[in-house]
Design brief:
The complex is a heterodimer.
Chain A: H1 15-43, H2 45-48, E1 52-53, E2 56-57, H3 58-88
Antiparallel strand pairs in A: 1-2
Chain B: H1 3-24, H2 30-35, H3 42-53, H4 56-69, H5 74-98, H6 103-110, H7 114-146, H8 151-201, H9 206-209, H10 221-231, H11 244-260, H12 262-265, H13 274-310, H14 327-335, E1 338-340, H15 357-365, E2 373-375, H16 380-387, H17 392-430, H18 436-458, H19 465-489, H20 495-517, H21 545-562, H22 568-577, H23 583-586
Antiparallel strand pairs in B: 1-2
Classes of the chains: A mainly alpha, B mainly alpha.
Chain lengths: ~90, ~600
């Protein structure tokens, strides 16, 4: 299962390290995911009420548009980073 | 041409197209039937997933719910898109790597337990059947309008069409048909929205129009809407009405429910590679977002248009006379989904918030004795082009689009249900030696039973299409998502933990829903009134799924830690799911 490890001092390229790198990336993306939706659109909306957007406030914009746009960017960012990780750790299917 | 025949022409032509495609790509083998032989490009798959995903609830019902509530129903927008982030990051690539046909199959293998697999089947069936009820509600609305029959007759005709349509195809037919359906439904949704946005704001893009200046007032559209609603005693459109806790939980429930719905998950079994599963989720969301970014504009603009129709001289002036009502109101009266009762006998249609005590005095002063126009939320999108006075072909296109949305999702759900029954229940547990031919027959019988149940319950639905569908998300969120996530991200969760977790999540959520919505959704059997005051901690039945999921996670961990850890080969299985390499080999059945 584990890919051959290179000598001491160089980077750990095992399946275990791949998984850890993946978890770090997932965690980062989920923080952004929660921040725009549960944060900006719901919990922090009162704090953002001073920022006007087209007849309403920034929180409303995040609730009805902003978070959706961020979600799209997040998935493609994750897919792109993971393709690079797959290659780096030599676990890609190609 | 008469509108009735124009509708028939558009709906008939699109149906002929779908049936043609389904016939051309019909399923020959079980692998074709369940997973389209894993040969679907990520962009194609994304588009098909989008059609599968955007049901009668998204197409017909959601904009109506947003229109009549405003900010609070943003939960639908964020929930039904945010779930794709969870799907892409937490589930889709690993389930694709695992490479089986159905969700219960993964549960059964990962938790090395036939019981776990059967409970997975149960969770899947409860969530999917609830979802199909919501679709049937929407199908009934769409058919009743364009065939100009009652809502009940529309529902029965719709059920017959869904039956022939889904039973014929299987996944391969469904995937390519769904691409065609996506194109029809997205055109049907955006074209009228563009027309209306141009009429009201001069902005060609509806999502930008929503935040632009309303040309008739010179003020921002949303500010005008808030002001007009206030003058009729309605709550502010952009303001928050419900509790923050409920809004938070409802959004979370819809998100994790999205990632836990089997008919969406199985879409990611059809792509060739693990990395394709990640991108495919992204493409699906792009195609979904085209509709979801348009929906809030459709909602706000339709609300404004309806009020302008009822009060042609502004809300300060007299309401419209019933005899002078526009054609679209007459059409919808036939279906019973729009009704006028002249409470004060003045022959005019007053529309205001009669439940607002503070406004009652003002209403009495104007001689109003109650709001007289009752408009079903679910008709809003279908009626929208008529309300805005758009040409006949746009109205016909929307009818075709609404049916495409409802049919594509119903087909996807029925496929997931039939797969669970024939593949997991019959082949997996009752008769492992069943022939491919008998398995396909069992799959089709399961579909027929599911349609019959959903049609019966659809006659007395527990809510508007999107609300019923939201309940299905709660059930999926509480039962399926946690067990899949734990199966991938933990090597410690064992068979007992998974079984207990699923049962706790499913039962707690289903019981909470039945207490308020009626036992088994049968009308008038609810134990408590379905109002915010009687909800536990103000949590609505639709928002309870997130709590159910939490209970699922917690009980699964507790039980797993108290019992023996999974055997070594299962821990190795989990390790192998986590790396993409070798996915091709894993597809063997």
């Amino acid at each position: 299962m584990a890919s051959p490890q290179t000598g001491a001092g160089s980077e750990d390229l095992s399946a275990h390290a791949y998984w850890k790198a993946n978890i770090r990336l997932v965690t980062g993306c989920l923080i952004v995911w929660a921040f725009v939706s549960f944060g900006c659109a719901i919990l922090f909306r009162p704090l953002l009420s001073g920022i006007p957007v087209g007849g309403t406030d920034l929180g409303f914009w995040f609730a009805q548009q902003g978070s959706i746009l961020v979600f799209i960017v997040l998935i493609f960012f994750y897919a792109w980073r993971m393709t690079k990780l797959d290659k780096k750790y030599n676990v890609s299917e190609d | 041409m008469d509108q009735y025949y124009l509708n028939l022409l558009f709906v008939g032509a699109t149906f002929a197209l779908y049936i043609g495609i389904a016939f051309w790509a019909r399923a020959g083998t079980t692998s074709d039937f369940y997973a389209a032989n894993r040969g679907v490009h990520p962009v194609t798959n994304g588009m098909a997933t989008a059609a599968d995903w955007m049901s009668a609830a998204s197409f017909l019902s959601m904009a109506g719910l947003i229109a009549f509530t405003g900010y609070d129903n943003s939960a639908y927008l964020m929930g039904w898109t945010g779930g794709y982030v969870l799907l892409a990051l937490l589930l889709a690539p690993y389930l694709r790597k695992f490479g089986k046909f159905t969700v219960p199959e993964f549960i059964g293998d990962r938790f090395y337990s036939k019981t776990a697999r059967l409970i997975g089947v149960l969770c899947l069936i409860v969530a999917s059947v609830t979802y199909v009820i919501g679709q049937m509600t929407g199908v009934g609305v769409a058919f009743s309008r364009f065939l100009e029959v009652s809502n009940t007759a529309g529902l029965l005709i719709g059920a017959a069409v869904v039956f022939f349509y889904a039973v014929l195809g299987g996944m391969k037919g469904v995937t390519y048909t769904q691409v065609a359906q996506y194109i029809v439904l997205i055109l049907a949704y955006t074209i009228p929205a563009i027309f209306i946005s141009l009429q009201l704001t001069g902005n060609v893009l509806p999502p930008l129009g929503l935040f632009s200046t309303y040309e008739a007032s010179g003020q921002p559209l949303l500010a005008t809407l808030n002001q007009i609603l206030g003058e009729l005693g309605f709550a502010s459109y952009t303001g928050q009405q419900g509790s923050t806790l409920n809004l938070f939980l409802f959004t979370l429930t819809l998100m994790i429910g999205t990632a836990g719905l089997p008919h969406v998950i199985i879409r990611f079994f059809t792509v060739p590679k693990v990395s394709d599963a990640r991108y495919s989720a992204g493409w699906a969301l792009v195609f979904i977002a085209l509709l979801y970014l348009t929906a809030p504009a459709v909602g706000a603009m339709a609300r404004l248009n309806i009020i302008n129709t009822v009060f042609p001289n502004g809300v300060e002036g007299q309401a419209l006379e019933y005899e002078a009502r526009p054609e679209w109101m007459k059409n919808w009266e036939t279906t019973g989904l729009l009704a006028f009762t002249d409470k004060n006998g003045d022959g005019r249609m007053q529309l205001y918030n009669e439940k607002n005590q503070a406004f009652a005095e003002q209403a009495a002063e104007r001689g109003w004795q109650g709001s007289e126009l009752d408009i079903n939320n679910d008709i809003l999108v279908l009626a929208n082009p008529e309300i805005a006075g758009l040409p006949g072909w746009v109205i016909a296109l929307v009818a075709a689009g609404g049916l495409a949305a409802a049919l594509s999702t119903a087909a996807g759900l029925l496929l997931a249900i039939s797969g669970a029954v024939s593949h997991d229940l019959i082949k997996g547990a009752i008769n492992p030696n069943i022939s491919e031919k008998s398995e396909l027959l069992a799959a089709r019988i399961a579909m027929a039973v599911a349609i019959a149940v959903a049609t019966y319950l659809g006659l007395n639905p527990p809510g508007f299409a999107a609300q019923t569908v939201a309940l299905a998300f709660g059930i999926a969120a509480a039962s399926i998502f946690p067990v899949l996530m734990m199966g991938i991200f933990s090597t410690r969760i064992n068979n007992r933990g998974a079984v207990v977790g699923m049962l706790v999540g499913l039962l707690s959520t289903v019981i909470y829903i039945f207490l308020y919505k009626g036992w088994f959704f049968l009308p008038d059997t609810n134990s408590f009134a379905d109002t915010p005051a009687s909800w536990f901690l103000g949590i609505s039945p639709a928002a309870f799924g997130a709590i159910g999921a939490l209970l699922n996670f917690a009980s699964a961990y507790a039980v797993s830690l108290a019992t023996r850890e999974p055997p070594a080969h299962i821990q190795e299985l989990v390790e192998s799911i986590r790396v993409p390499r070798g996915a091709g080999a894993a597809t063997g059945h």
